[in-house]
Design a protein that fits this description.
Its EC number is 3.1.1.116. The chain is an alpha/beta fold. The chain contains ten helices and six strands, in the order H-E-H-E-H-H-H-E-E-H-H-E-H-E-H-H. A four-stranded parallel sheet has the order 1-2-5-6, sandwiched between helices. Strand 1, helix 2 and strand 2 form a beta-alpha-beta unit. The longest helix has 15 residues.
Length: 222
Amino acid sequence: QVLTLDARNHGGSPHSPLMTYEAMSLDVQHLLTRLGIAKCILLGHSMGGKTAMTLALQRPDLVERLISVDISPVSTTPVSEFSAYISAMKSVKIPDGLSRSAARQLADDQLRPVVQLPQLRQFLLTNLVEVEGRYVWRVNLEAIAHHLADIMNFPVFHKPYPGPALFLGGSNSPYISSKDYPEIQRLFPKADVKHIEGAGHIVHQDKFEEFITAVLNFLPPP
């Protein structure tokens, strides 16, 4: 059984003014309780990876194995870069009555001066939705902007997670680097670190087949 869930302030999940890893970890814990799941294998990408790590470190009894995709348990990219992306998203103006494709193209044009990577713009544009004839961002930009420092950092933990862990990065991404290895080993002593050649930050999109193979190889046999 595979469950996919949207983090708070993302996708179809409710909006909340609080956006910390501790809060997002509790969201997952509440879901596991509600579904009667005693133990799970957690896989998370980027912010989701940090949420998965937080849960594994807080409640190792709930996590059989952990997969963190292209993120380490350390502070990441300078806040200013992401702050600029959020400001650019907030400033997008789309007139009512446009088709979805025209609205996406217009938003893409407006984001381009700040968000120069086409793949990143496409990723951000997945959050553009039509509600009652108007195009809006389904992510809670205000909460994310307010908690950007929390999202870029990682909570302090002293006790390691004792289970198996896989840190799966993209070779073209800086988010799992050799300078992170000591902290990965401190908090996740049973961790394997692998990089998929030719993948950027969105590993599962850039190298889908290789990503699936790496994940399946890490999972226990059925």
